[in-house]
Amino acid sequence: MWPNLIAKAKEGGLDVIQTYVFWNLHEPQLGQYEFSGRFDLVGFIKEIQAQGLYVTLRIGPYIESEFTYGGLPLWLHDIPGIVFRSNNDQFKYHMQRFTTKIVNMMKSANLYASQGGPIILSQIENEYGNIGRAFQENGVTYMHWAAQMAVGLQTGVPWVMCKQDDAPDPVINTCNGMECGTRFKGPNSPNKPSLWTENWTSFYQAFGGVPYLRSAKDIAYNVALFIAKKGSYVNYYMYHGGTNFDRMASAFITTAYYDEAPLDEYGLVRQPKWGHLKELHAAIKSCSQALLYGTQTTFSLGSQQQAYVFRSSTECAAFLENSRNGDVTVQFQNIPYQLPSKSISILPDCKNVAFNTAKVNVQNNARAMKTQLQFNSAENWKVYTEAIPNFDDTSLRANTLLDQIGTAKDTSDYMWYTFRFNGNSPNAQSVLSIYSQGHVLHSFINGVLIGSAHGSHNNMYVAMENNVNLINGMNNISILSATVGLPNSGAYLERRVAGLRQVKVQGRDFTSYSWGYQVGLLGETMQIYTATGSSKVQWQSFQSSTKPLTWYQTTFDEPAGNDPVVLNLGSMGKGLTWVNGQGIGRYWISFHTQKGTPSQQWYHIPRSLLKSTGNLLVILEEETGNPLGITLDTVYIAEDQAS
User: Fold this and answer.
1) Is residue 127 annotated as a catalytic residue, yes or no?
2) Catalytic residue among 127, 494, 524, 621
């Protein structure tokens, strides 16, 4: 997908592609590196270069970005004495080692602008200003160390720190947000340019939430204002967000990422956002000579109206701003100009209006899905039901409740907590109480599901209380805890925990008790979502009744044409999906928005993952969804709608 996405960005008037570097993808195990296929960072940058664009490389290597564990590899968690993102020798050693490796890779491929390559900026750390105070002096020391370490790598291009007002020289402090034209304090030194590293075109979406809709007018107004105030660089976050494949999204974040960006999740142009910004970019570039070589003057045109004028001996460009809600007419150089509510007019020659941020001339377009295949034939589905482990089935034991993050080590979303005890009264009804720090619970007594519960992005803790019937004799309690991504931000990330924290039965506390654990599901361990792993279990024919924790398998052919391919999982509950062994991401249909609809119903299958025939589709359904309602759809842009 890279060449087409880059080409559409270039056509939209962009000069630079900004990308993060994902430490947990590139070094999944200490000293084991992955830079092939989807993770070919050098190849990605060379493709950008081939299309004549520049690159900003945000190495981090902490990146947040709604990516699981903020992009940090989980193995860091197990290094004794480590404190992430602080003046801590263990963290600094590994951060410097990985950052140096990335920089050296770029140098070896001659990718820095100082070598004739496309990389014009690099970033160290990421929004450290949000958490630095939590570390007090250690935070200040670490921030200065990070800047010095990065500069010492001698890339020949500047380094930036975003949301870091006190970024030490020569590192440039930059702005992130939606209104950097008004909220940014500016560069902390007169020899630094004014840079906007993240202009949020929408906002991340959590399961249970709805998309954040930001208008093309609002984005354009804020970009024009930033440029008018001597801004040198604006980056859209995101211009294309794409898909959080596998289990890569952070806690409760949807699989689709920034779908409301100018290029949507599938890479389709989203109008009027893409087209309106393209016109904005052309208007700004037509002012280039005046912006670069002119002297800026500003003066008032009214109580909430301002002129920003850039004049050289040969060039003049003006940005006329109306910051009030309501249209006005202003006089500029003795000529009246109508300024719509909350807008900026761009005059590349100080006379004629080339563009107004509020006047959207591009028509809206609408995205639509077309069903290409229905999976409604029961005989085409095979079924494997996950076994519910009892205490006796487990080999990992502890006399306490273990932290799920530290135990599962991000090898799975799932971890079983099991224990057993003697019930001494026949058919006695008791209360099972569970308190968990995330994110989903399914409780079984003697193999029978007795309750489920989940948290949310704003409250990840889960409290669950169920009336249960115990048998006279040994009772087996099996509790499946599921994380929906790891946390991705905050100070002391290495201390964060997940999973069960307290369990009581009829008031008796079993927190310090003999527990048995199973990390992951058996189907995951055997990789039954792959062609080879699939043969390791006995698949059954599909029955009308659906059980929780069931795997479903079928095959399908690639739809004709080039339109993006998606799975409509609207009939399912919650789980994971694979196509030809590749994780398509988490789905969670049953977690509805306040409007009573799923946060995400369609799940992207890139065509590059597909064969023309016989594609293997495997779904793990945690709840009791119905696979007979799944369809394979293609996505297309319907006729343009009038604005």
Assistant:
1) yes
2) 127
